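Lab meeting notes turned into a lecture example. A postdoc, R.K., suggested we walk through two folding results consecutively so the class can see how the record format repeats. The first protein's sequence and structure tokens come next.
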Amino acid sequence: MFDWFRNLEGDEKRTLYACFGGWAVDALDTQIYSFLIPTLIAAWQLTKAQAGLLGTGALISSAVGGWIAGMLCDRIGRVRVMKLAIAWFLVFTILCGFANSFEHLFIARVLSGIGFGGEWAAGAVLMGEIIRPEYRGKAVGTVQSAYAIGYAIAAIMSSVLFGLMAAESAWRWMFWLGVSPAIFVFLALRGVKEPAVYLEAKRARAAKGAEHASPFMIFHPSVLKVTVLTAILALGVQAGGFAVGIWLPTLLKTAHGLTTVQVGYNMFIFTFGSFVGFLTAAYLCDAIGRRRNFLIFTLANWIAIPAFLYIPSGQGGLYLLDFLLGFASLGIYSALGPYFTELFPSAIRATGQGFSYNFGRGVGAFFPTVVGMLSGEGGLFMLRDAIAVIACSAYIFVVIAIVLLPETRGRDLREAPDLVPATDAEKAAYMAKPSRS
């Protein structure tokens, strides 16, 4: 089962370790806020719409940060941008812990979002280019599973800190302690080199006097279809995940009457389910292809979300539903990184990935706010009904995208056109090239 990992070369393993750590810190920083919503609502008398806006603001800014990071990756390198992004969100996450009002926290969260959006853009293209084609799905999906580790740490921190100290102090320490693992990520990145495929393509462009492609080349007619459809795919995956994940601790506390510590236990099971889902999807996308993998996980979400929200259960049954919900709603993320890497041409690969993934993140960020508005005072739905409608509807976008995009399993990035000197015919020929499906 793990022969692929043992067969990785030194550069591939070092990159995997560094990106795994970086994405775990990213997830920890992102998920911390969902545990704090009930506390902040009580402390600052926030409305549900304001609570949703705090989450949405960070996600929208992360979309901007991801696109900027993607453009910088294609100009100054993947590793350098990843280091800058981690340092950025480390600083502003610490500042979140010093906030004394909704406005202060909103500004700090928005600025922090720029960093964690950029970190994914840099890490995804770095992994996709360094790992060989036959292991790309498993390796990138395994790194994606680091999100589950970050979520688990956030759940444990929530249970421990809120169990040991008053709520008004615990939420601040969640932010301050949550960024400490970033130090180890910086150490891991010291030995990571830029991908050979990126450096070779850059040298070839420089020799022809066209070292950098315009970031707006992702909207060129020969690439526009890929840009639009990958953005729609990212929207469906992330909007569904956000609509569930951001409100899940609040739902557990209000609908099931759980304490903050008990919510942490349930979120730990949810996170364990997501870890299994990430790894399962990582293997499936290499075994059966990227498109079939997305379809299977879409169907899994359409089953798991209503089951979690509406099936009556005791605590044991709730743990099982936690697991299934985490497996489906987060496991689907695994194939995004390798799929996007294989779809975009060399010169604009990071720009395209950064734009599409973070377009989905930015627009999908409104979905938790819509859930809050629909379930708030005078809203149309109870909280669980709003989550069901919004989350299940989001996965329709996934189906639309995978129907129209090609299968890319097994594509060799060394054969990808660089696009700057390439003709539209050369680009079309590469996109039409058969892959293992």
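The second example is placed directly after the first for contrast:
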Amino acid sequence: MKKGIIFDMDGTMVDNMMVHHRAWQRKLAELGLDLSIDEVKEKIHGINEEILERIFGDRFTVEERRRISWEKEAAYREIFLPELRLLPGLQGFLEMAKAANIPMAIGTAAPTENVEFVMDNLRLHPYFKGVFDAKSVTKGKPDPEIFHVAAAAMGLSTADCLIFEDSVTGAEAARRAGAQAVIVTTTHGREEFAHFNHIVRFVEDFEGLELRNLGLIG
């Protein structure tokens, strides 16, 4: 029996990953790096400053990486606001979990501004014991630190939690955390997760999900 739930945010709670990919594609092109959208999906994941350092090495200073990250995220929020909504079924799923007294937390690699953009506009704060983002940890996914922090906020170990993720990197972080995962296939096909054995279910969204069937209540 699982005692708590940890959600990733981008691509898991809101279907926004293609907006992120397009924003990254545009920003990287401005920096002289032309990538296809498939290349962006493959290479661009994790914390923004880490992404820029991984791709460009020491070309940019720390301050320049922060500025580039801010510009990309500001563009993302402007593009996404008119279509911001939870994935189908998630509002009801959150209500069910809250009514069953199952603690919930968020562990995301998203910048704080983007997390608050979603949390405030969709009025989600009352559902969660803790909300943790890129500034909450020293290492991004696939390091499991963010999930350990989120679990601790609920007074649980990660092994006691069910983690909802959408990315291969996030699934690897859940594996390293010793947790089982449900994969939301907004961004990646289930065939990309074939090498994992800790995934208990693949879903397109949250419609029809039952707490009992996920091992969250008896």
